[in-house]
Specification:
Elements: H1 15-29, E1 47-51, H2 56-71, E2 75-79, H3 85-93, E3 99-103, H4 104-111, H5 120-130, E4 135-137, E5 147-152, H6 153-159, H7 164-168, E6 176-178, H8 189-196, E7 205-207, H9 214-221, E8 227-231, H10 236-239, E9 242-244, E10 257-262, H11 268-280, H12 283-294, H13 301-311
Parallel strand pairs: 1-2, 6-7, 6-8
Antiparallel strand pairs: 3-10, 4-10, 5-8, 5-9
Length: 319
């Protein structure tokens, strides 16, 4: 998942002014709090509250969950845009939310900061042991939103690139773009060096603080850099005919989309419905949903989800 943008320094204000401003803001916001209300932590397994993190892909997948669950007789409320994992995991534990989409690798590292596994099967096994009594998951989707080393088609053809290992032979020539933190992250430049012997010197790294977004893509397509850290479900990949280099040694953790439940709200029927969704939620399908929401058409997440569930026959009861 994309890293959070850096925050600007917070200006200092007198304490009284801050208290007044906070009180006024809370009054003005009213019900804008995505966690307003009690959720549905009653004994009725057919009443669910579907939440999401605060970025478009999470909101869209949450709306897909909601559409499929409603089609199967569930009474569903939605609470989009809750925030980061630090906000929505406690909300799940407290049952303000019943279920939401998460990502296996990052969820594991949140629950167990000492976890070091990165391949799909190992992450799934470790995650099962890290959830504790309050959380539960359904079957992860094959679709992932993970970091990737990306090059242009011209660069891939010129250097005969298929995997990150192929790029290592050109270490002395490669200029690389990514978030500034990528220089220090274990799966960033240090991981690429250790895993693939791809060595990027400090002078050949171009820090761009948009999490693999438009500025990073422009740096790549304009030739300012030769490779970049871009996420696998970015619509810019297809739009610019960019090439994702294979990561056979799993430098980057698998990030399969997974339904994350409050354990008390996970029923066999809800699990079956969301497993049916996950079975069709490939990386290509995540790309298609992101293109609908973040591409030229700027479709609202709920509308994109409704169209997707209909196209995949998930707007009707499953078997």
């Amino acid at each position: 998942m994309p890293a959070a943008p850096r925050r600007r320094p917070v200006p200092r204000f007198p304490v009284a002014a801050v208290v007044f401003a906070v009180a006024a803001a809370l009054t003005a916001c009213g019900n804008s709090d995505p966690l307003a209300g009690s959720g549905h932590c009653d004994a009725d397994p057919s009443r669910l509250t579907v939440g999401s993190a605060n970025f478009p892909e999470s909101e869209t997948v949450a709306d897909v969950y909601a559409e499929a669950l409603r089609a199967n007789g569930f009474t569903v409320d939605t609470k989009p845009g809750i925030g980061s994992r630090e906000a929505y995991v406690p909300a799940l534990r407290q049952c303000s939310v019943s279920v939401l989409p998460d990502y296996t690798g990052n969820l594991l590292r949140y629950l167990d900061p000492k976890a070091t596994v990165s391949a799909e099967p190992e992450i799934e096994r470790a995650l099962a042991g890290a959830l504790g009594p309050d959380l539960a998951v359904a079957t992860p989707a094959p679709g992932q939103d993970s970091d990737a080393v990306v090059v242009t088609r011209a660069t891939a053809d010129r250097w005969h690139l298929q995997s990150i290992a192929d790029l290592a032979a050109h270490s002395g020539e490669v200029k690389f773009a990514g978030m500034a933190e990528f220089q220090e992250r274990p799966d960033g430049l240090p991981g690429l060096k250790e895993t693939y012997h791809l060595t990027i010197s400090p002078g050949a790294f171009v820090p761009i603080a948009d999490g693999g977004g438009p500025a990073t893509v422009r740096a790549l397509t304009s030739g300012q850099v030769d490779a970049a850290d871009i996420f696998t479900t970015s619509p810019a990949l297809a739009a610019n005919d960019l090439v994702v280099l294979a990561d056979p040694l799993h430098n980057f953790s698998a990030q399969n989309v997974v339904p994350l439940f409050n354990a008390r709200k996970k029923s066999d029927r809800a699990t079956a419905v969301l497993n049916a969704v996950s079975a069709q939620l490939t990386t290509d399908q995540l790309l298609a949903l992101n293109e609908a929401v973040s591409g030229a058409s700027k479709t609202e997440p709920a509308a994109a989800a409704k169209a997707w569930t209909a196209a995949h026959h998930l707007d009707q009861p499953i078997g």
